[in-house]
């Protein structure tokens, strides 16, 4: 989903809305709106992670999907790294998004062609080729075979945090993190070039410190390799652990907001005097809840962030000022929405009835777009400010490394 991608209401959307209204009135239209919003996030996405046993595939998958605490991840690592069959890890909120821990590679008789056939190559949208050391001929053969078959891949160097700890112990007086990272990167690139990969890109990651190193640019690279609908789904699934990932969520939620508003403008053009509301308030409440979850402002996300950065939960919650994010129930959000928007959020029956003969359905639709957009956009902007404050509070100064700052600036 590109930064300049536009969202508009299609003739098919208008046709579906009119048919729903004719079949079941306003309740049927509101059900259709929910369905159309939901179908944006139902696209199937399967990402495969390939590497030798013990490179940390399952740790990486658990971390990027936010599946558990570090001790739980280590338990999963011991049980899944030796699997001889693909292991699927479903996203906890989007079961259509799966990361696959594929069987280990690296045996003396390893052959890329037969390996890809056994793991059902065409089932996966994207491949992550992972190593905890330098890359070898097996990684290169896999990459070339994947490219030949029309799929995309990326190289990931895992366990970078462990390498830095070792380097720091051995270079107590002249330790330079940036130089060590460059050495690791250059060694990986050099090893791939030796086995026939031209100008490879290697991403340096730590599964226990996702916010550091190349994680922001790695996520951008994954997104660029996917078509628009799968980009959208991956953005939904990715965690908010950096300012860069927060920017990605902003673009996604703005796109979703525009889509809802265009749909609401189509509803306002329905030829009836019995239309009591343009958009069901419950749909808007649900959207606000989705915004909070996507921006990491819900209780579960804040708890994970608190554990990840060893920050007191109450300290992170203190950064949240938006009333809708602090609300404890859907009913409370509904009351806040009505108070915030008052008469401009919903167009009452009398107003619509009086307005339609004067300005016509097209302008009434525009007004519905404006009213819905204004209310949701104000809330979303407030939530984005809160989310940024939460991330900045969570990131301890010592963990804001020079490498991380450079990556944020690049993206």
How would the global form be characterised?
globular
Low-pLDDT parts are 1-7, 70-82, 273-278, 343-367, 398-411
Give the ordered list of helices and strands.
HEHHEEHEHEHHEHHHHHHHHHH
What is the structural class?
Answer: alpha/beta
Distance between the termini: 15 Å
What does this structure look like?
The longest helix has 46 residues, at 349-394. This protein has helices at 11-39, 57-64, 70-80, 112-118, 137-148, 160-170, 177-194, 215-224, 228-237, 243-267, 281-294, 299-309, 313-317, 323-326, 330-341, 349-394, 402-410, and strands at 45-50, 87-90, 97-101, 126-131, 152-157, 202-204. A six-stranded mixed beta sheet has the order 2-3-1-4-5-6, with helices on both faces. It is of the alpha/beta class. The two termini are 15 Å apart. The chain is globular, with a radius of gyration of 24 Å. Helix content is 59%, strand content 7%.
Name the descriptors:
411 residues; alpha/beta; 7% strand; globular; disordered C terminus
């Amino acid at each position: 989903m590109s930064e300049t991608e536009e969202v508009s209401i299609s003739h098919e959307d208008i046709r579906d809305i009119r048919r729903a209204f004719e079949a079941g009135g306003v309740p049927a239209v509101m059900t259709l709106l929910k369905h159309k919003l939901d179908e944006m996030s139902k696209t199937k996405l399967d990402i495969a992670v390939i590497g030798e046993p013990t490179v940390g595939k399952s740790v990486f998958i658990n971390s990027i999907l936010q599946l558990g605490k570090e001790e739980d991840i280590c338990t999963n690592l011991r049980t899944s790294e030796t699997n001889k069959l693909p292991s699927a890890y479903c996203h906890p909120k989007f079961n259509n998004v799966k990361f696959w821990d594929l069987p280990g590679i690296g045996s003396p008789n390893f052959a890329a062609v037969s390996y890809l056939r056994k793991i059902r190559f065409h089932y996966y949208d994207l491949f992550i080729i992972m190593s905890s050391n330098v890359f070898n001929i097996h990684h290169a053969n896999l990459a070339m075979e994947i490219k030949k078959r029309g799929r995309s891949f990326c190289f990931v160097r895992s366990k970078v945090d462990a390498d830095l700890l070792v380097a720091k112990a051995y270079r107590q007086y002249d330790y330079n993190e940036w130089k060590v990272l460059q050495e690791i990167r250059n060694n990986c690139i050099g090893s791939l070039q030796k086995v026939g990969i031209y100008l490879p890109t290697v991403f340096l990651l730590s599964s226990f410190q996702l916010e550091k190193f190349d994680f922001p640019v790695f996520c951008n690279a994954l997104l660029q390799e996917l078509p628009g609908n799968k980009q959208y789904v991956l953005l939904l699934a990715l965690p908010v652990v950096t300012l860069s990932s927060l920017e990605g969520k902003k673009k996604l939620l703005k796109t979703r907001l525009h889509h809802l508003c265009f749909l609401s403008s189509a509803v306002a053009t329905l030829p009836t005097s019995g239309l009591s509301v343009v958009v069901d308030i419950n749909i808007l409440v649900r959207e606000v809840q989705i915004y909070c979850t996507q921006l990491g402002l819900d209780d579960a996300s804040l708890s994970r962030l608190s554990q990840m950065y060893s920050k007191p939960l109450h300290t992170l919650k203190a950064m949240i000022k938006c009333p809708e994010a602090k609300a404890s129930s859907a009913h409370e959000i509904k009351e806040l929405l009505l108070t915030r928007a008052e008469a401009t959020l919903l167009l009452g029956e009398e107003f619509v009835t009086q307005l339609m003969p004067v300005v016509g359905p097209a302008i009434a639709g525009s007004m519905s777009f404006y009213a819905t957009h204004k209310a949701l956009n104000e809330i979303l902007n407030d939530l984005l400010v809160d989310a940024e404050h939460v991330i900045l509070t969570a990131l301890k100064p010592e963990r804001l490394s020079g490498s991380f700052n450079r990556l944020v600036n690049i993206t």
